[in-house]
Fold this sequence. Notes:
Elements lengths: L53 E8 L2 E9 L4 E6 L4 E2 L3 H21 L2 H4 L7 E5 L1 E3 L2 E4 L2 E5 L2 E5 L3 E4 L5 E8 L7 E6 L13 E9 L4 E5 L1 E4 L4 E5 L1
Parallel strand pairs: 5-16
Antiparallel strand pairs: 1-2, 2-3, 3-4, 6-7, 7-10, 8-9, 11-12, 11-13, 13-14, 15-16
Amino acid sequence: MTTIKGSTKINNLIVDGNLDINGETNINSTSVKIKDNTITLNSKESSNKVSKGTAGIEIYRGSSPSYKIIYDENDQQLKAGLSNNLKAISSKEYVDTTIANTKTELIQQMNESDFLNLAPKINYGEDTVKVTTSGLTATIPTMSIFLGGYFSKITTAIKVTLKANTTNYIYLERDSSDRTRINVSVSSTLTIAEGSRQFNRICIAAITTNSTSATNTKIYRINTGYNDYLFNT
């Protein structure tokens, strides 16, 4: 066994057998060729994990953050990316599971919003929904509607009380805590412009009244996501 200490310059070196290097190793070459098909890192580990937390390969990029491919013992994930923004590398099993779960959630959401029942019945164009009045009462008819990202079906006509001697703006809004519900409200203030394409809330009519009944109804052309509904009397 030959031991070399200190600073020694050797032009060409062929080693038959094992080569042990104690200390930092700097290789100044234009290319490195390794015959072995497996490189083992952290080989002197004595515990059952990576004691230093991570192990891997780092690509030096000068003044820019280094690029790394490492194993992170903290969450037992293989990660890659810039040293200040490492991201987990997803396995095929993880991707397949995520896609399957997404499909299941989407189907559940479609069923909850009655999408499968409504979709074949919807005319993807303009529909006319007739809002009627009697005295100081307005009636919203039964209809299918896409509002707040979900399809719904209003199965029972809705009656709302109008205020006298003012303009009543009637709104439909998807309930923020229960997406199966659509709330109806009446206000003397117009907070949504005509033709508005707001996601969760629409104004379906503006009804002007005197002391006893409706005197005028303004038509609003509303886009609810898929359909254009024309609300009139």
